[in-house]
Design brief:
four-stranded parallel beta sheet; 12 strands
Length: about 280
């Protein structure tokens, strides 16, 4: 039996940058907080917690803070959180992924010029909440084709369409097609991160040839969930795990190839641990 890793997987640039930023601050001996989990992986957050890093979950918690360094998570935050940090004169270390920061700049500019912002993504996701928080006017979040079909902005309103960086590439283009067919005056900016597209294509290709696929990532990770959905469409025996403890393989007979991929917030040591376990035990 062969065990094969996806060509593109694991920590992306933005996640690595954010995690490295926290570890650098730990070395400086500072009292460190992150606004929200630094990345969507509970194992990474747990390890940082063991080193004294505390997580702030709301603006109210931030308001109660009187000292310390606050690191902005990779997913970014609404503009109001940055404003609170400045008003309280707290040290702010911005680890927002540059690709996410680019979206903030786009929606702030375009909404300031009167355009209705359309964010293609999941409304409850912290990245999307952050993007919405930089809009200066009307904003709508569309999560799927059905919501795109139902979307009816006021007549004559100009649109600016962006995407959550981890959104499914093909679904985004399908939603854009729906909006274009309606004849709206729209600016469309494909803000899906290249790393996301590469990981999705790599996972899809591996799942198409694998008998079993293992997808590793945080339970609340949007990009990992999408990898799982993509793999499940290609491979009937697809498993979504957060840690090795979650791996309970029921391998079909005559398995030739087990494929492994991982979300953008999954550390390499966890990927290696799963790979080693599968090689030894199956």
């Amino acid at each position: 039996m062969e065990v094969k890793l996806a060509e593109r997987m694991g920590f992306c640039f933005g996640v690595k940058r954010a995690v490295d930023t926290v570890y650098e601050q730990i070395k400086n001996g500072k009292n460190i907080y992150t606004y929200g989990p630094i990345v969507n992986n509970e194992e990474v957050v747990r390890e940082l917690s063991e080193q004294g890093v505390k997580v702030l979950e709301s603006g109210e918690e931030l308001m109660e803070l009187s000292e310390g360094s606050v690191i902005i998570r990779a997913h970014g935050v609404p503009e109001k959180i940055i404003r609170i940090l400045r008003e309280k004169n707290l040290e702010c270390i911005d680890a927002t992924c540059p690709f996410v920061k680019r979206i903030h700049n786009i929606v702030e500019k375009e909404s300031g010029e009167g355009r209705h912002i359309v964010v293609v993504g999941n409304a409850g996701h912290p990245e999307v909440e952050g993007i919405v928080g930089w809009c200066k006017g009307p904003v709508t979040v569309l999560k799927d084709l059905e919501e795109a079909e139902e979307f009816r902005p006021p007549e004559g309103e100009k649109l600016c369409v962006v995407a959550q960086t981890t959104y499914n590439y093909n679904k985004f283009h399908n939603i854009v097609e729906i909006l274009e067919k309606k004849g709206y005056n729209s600016i469309v900016v494909n803000t899906i991160c290249n790393a996301t597209e590469e990981r999705q294509c790599s996972a899809k290709a591996l799942a198409a040839e694998a008998d079993v696929m293992i997808v590793i990532g945080g339970r609340h990770s949007s990009n990992t969930r999408k990898l799982y959905e993509i793999c499940a469409e290609e491979c009937a025996h697809t498993y979504f795990i957060q840690t090795l403890d979650d791996l309970h393989l029921e391998l079909p007979k005559a398995v030739r190839l087990v494929g492994i991929t991982a979300g953008a917030s999954t550390p390499n040591k966890l990927i290696e641990e799963v790979q080693r376990h599968v090689r030894i035990n199956f």
